[in-house]
Specification:
The structure holds two protein chains of two kinds.
Chain A: H1 2-32, H2 39-57, H3 65-95, H4 104-125, E1 130-131, E2 139-143, E3 152-155, H5 156-178, H6 180-190, H7 192-197, H8 202-228, E4 230-231, H9 235-250, H10 255-275, H11 281-295
Antiparallel strand pairs in A: 1-4, 2-3
Helix pairs in contact in A: 1-5, 1-8, 1-9, 1-10, 2-3, 2-4, 2-8, 2-9, 3-8, 5-6, 5-8, 6-8, 9-10, 9-11, 10-11
Chain B: E1 8-17, E2 20-30, E3 35-40, H1 46-53, E4 61-66, E5 69-70, H2 76-79, E6 84-87, H3 99-107, H4 115-125, H5 127-131, H6 142-154, E7 160-164, H7 172-189, E8 192-197, H8 200-206, E9 209-214, E10 217-223, H9 224-229, H10 231-238
Classes of the chains: A mainly alpha, B alpha/beta.
Chain lengths: ~300, ~240
């Protein structure tokens, strides 16, 4: 039971990070119907920017707790802003010129943008692992020494990840459902031409979608860095594929779907590693995806198409 | 120079879809306060003209003026912020938004939008929409969707309303309701209406003036009464239509 609880905590933590990245995939897919394969690398860029900022500001665990939190919030905001610029630029250079071109064209440039970002970071930052001393050490011990002596830990960084993700998801859901920007995004998603006939600047709305996705990826990047303490130029690939899987599993285009999918992929991976074998955790995650898609091609929360014409 | 410039002035507009010519030099104008209709067969280019006025597709040559200002070549979203609104072909309701959200979308970019006032007006006009305000757009019947499309266009309080085939596929009773609403808007609110229709009889009875389009060119024009009385119009567009 203790073991199960520990896996659950780990799984939810990992799933939160996937969920944050998955939102970027699902929103872009929803609005322009393409998979932004560079999104995982935007997450990686966000993670590197966070690391650079942390080092530049000289943030270490020895700072007083209040100052540490303030400094990390500062890092988060700057990193979100800078990563957004990256996301915006990729859209501007690699996708917008191809709008109205055949469907596969932006998919190919997306892969190109992904390779370009990876190589840029590899060359400019070096190919080696970048470690970071734990900034938020410690945590709660939930159970101590039951019969098998297993100790359940809930670390402060896990709490941070889960709390930040929950807050962002709530904020984001409100933004999409209640604000005029969110309405414009949903309108563009459902009928771009009609949105422009109502005076919506469609290009700008699409750009903002990329910016929002990138900002969330930047948050995921910082959380990933704080949690694992080591990053390299390649982390975007696997995290990107996982988050993409999460988005498809939840129903691509659906925002709650991306969150749910992220959580599920995180849990499946963690439990599989915990009870079976670590080597096959990716196989487990992708198998679940395949099975769900066979029986529910639209994903778990995909759109039910009830439209009369 | 005439003293009263038209609200909408289309001059020698040519539009292509790829290499295919859809409009071959169209001239027409709509004066402030008028209802003007454009009739013609399927594929004549009526909807293309409607969309060209809105900048999507853009005219290959020729000019479109709104209230004396040239709008040819402007991006669609900028044209639509100039007190022009369109209820397009096929209605294009946002299916996964509620009726209320669809309506609010109509007022989204209007400057000095009095959303409550606009809502009041469209609910007066189409009480059905008020009953259905929380329902998703995609679940409405065809007639309700058409009402919603018109209501959404009205939300920005436009000076010019472009209406593309509002009667398409609707029961005669609903068509009458919709045409009554258009007349009401024109007489009561002074709204200028440019109406594209295949239902030539009702459109010409309603309109002050009409144009007939054949193969991307205007072939006839005149007051609604004149056109209704013409034998060639009757033969081509009104056979069996006057029910």
């Amino acid at each position: 039971m203790e073991y199960f609880l520990q896996q659950l905590i780990n799984g939810v933590t990992l799933g939160s990070i996937y969920g944050l990245i998955a939102i970027g995939y699902t929103m872009v897919y929803g609005i322009i119907g393409m998979i932004n394969f560079a999104h995982g690398d935007i997450f990686m860029v966000g993670s590197f920017l966070s690391l650079i900022l942390i080092v530049a500001f000289g943030i270490t665990a020895s700072l007083p707790i209040g100052l540490l939190i303030l400094a990390l919030i500062g890092v988060l905001i700057i990193s979100m802003a800078l990563t957004s610029v990256w996301g915006w630029t990729v859209e501007r250079i690699a996708y917008r010129p191809l709008r109205g071109s055949f469907r596969l064209a932006p998919l190919i440039t997306a892969i190109g943008a992904s390779i370009a970002l990876q190589n840029f970071v590899q060359i400019s930052q070096g190919a080696r692992n970048k470690p970071l001393q734990p900034l938020i050490p410690g945590g709660f011990t939930l159970t101590e020494g039951s019969d098998d002596g297993f100790i359940v830990q809930l670390s402060y960084s896990q709490i941070l990840i889960i709390v930040v993700t929950t807050l962002l998801m709530i904020g984001f859901t409100l933004l999409i459902n209640k604000t005029s920007l969110g309405r414009a995004q949903r309108a563009c998603e459902q009928d771009r031409k009609m949105a422009s006939l109502l005076g919506i600047n469609v290009d700008r709305t699409i750009s903002l979608t990329f910016v929002m996705g990138a900002a969330l990826a930047a948050v995921a990047g910082l959380l990933f860095l704080l949690y694992y303490g080591v990053i390299d130029f390649y982390i975007g690939f696997l995290a990107g594929v996982k988050a993409f899987t999460a988005a498809v599993l939840g129903g691509i285009g659906s925002l709650p779907g991306a969150m749910l999918g992220g959580l599920l992929i995180g849990l499946i991976e963690t439990f599989w590693s915990g009870y079976f074998s670590v080597e096959y955790k990716d196989v487990a995650a992708f198998s679940i995806l395949a099975i769900v898609l066979i029986f529910m091609p639209e994903g778990l929360l995909g759109k039910p198409e009830v439209e009369k014409v | 120079m005439s003293t009263s410039q038209p609200l909408l002035d289309v001059r020698d507009v040519v539009t292509h879809y790829g290499k295919i010519v859809a409009l071959r030099g169209v001239d027409l104008s709509v004066a402030s306060g008028e209802i003007v209709t454009l009739i013609g067969a399927n594929g004549a280019g009526k909807s293309t003209l409607m969309m060209t006025i809105c900048g999507s597709p853009k005219a290959t040559s020729g000019q479109v003026y709104f209230d004396g200002e040239e709008i040819t070549g402007l991006p669609t979203h900028e044209i639509m912020r100039k007190s022009i609104a369109q209820s397009p072909e096929g209605r294009r309701i946002f299916p996964r938004m509620s009726v209320m959200e669809n309506l609010i979308m109509g007022a989204e970019t209007a400057s000095n939008a009095d959303v409550d006032g606009s809502l009041q007006r469209v609910f007066d006009l189409f009480p059905r929409l008020k009953e259905r305000q929380n329902q998703r757009g995609g679940t409405l019947s065809g007639g309700e969707q058409q009402m919603l499309a018109i209501a959404r266009a009205l939300m920005s309080k436009p000076r010019l309303l472009l209406l593309d085939e509002p009667s398409l596929g609707l029961a005669p009773l609903i068509v009458k309701q919709i045409f009554d609403a258009i007349r009401d808007l024109n007489q009561g609110d002074g709204l200028t209406v440019f109406l594209v229709e295949q239902n030539a009889y009702h459109a010409l009875k309603l309109a002050h003036r009409g144009y007939v389009m054949v193969n991307g060119k205007i072939t006839m024009s005149g007051t609604g009464k004149e056109l209704l009385a013409r034998d060639d119009v009757k033969a081509a567009y009104l056979e069996g239509g006057a029910h």
